[in-house]
Amino acid sequence: MDNPTEINSVYWDEETKSWQYKVVPVEEYHGFTECQHCRRPMSHNIKSEGEFKVAYVKCACARE
Ligand SMILES: [Zn+2]
Questions:
Q1: Domain locations along the chain
Q2: What superkingdom does the record give (predicted)?
Q3: What is the 63 CA–ligand 1 centroid distance (Å)?
Q4: pLDDT digits (tens, 9 = 90+) for 9-18
């Protein structure tokens, strides 16, 4: 699998009380954590804008 160059990460927005998406650029990719239920990625460990971050994504069983 090729490393992604950007990730559409999801986060909970307290102001709107809803899930919001944000595309974050990936400088270095360091793997992901998979969901124990559907085995799809739940979060990606990346370096973005000079910082190590965890970018959360929605796995296959988190769809509304
Ligand atoms: Zn899942």
A1: 6-58
A2: Archaea
A3: 9
A4: 999 999 999 9
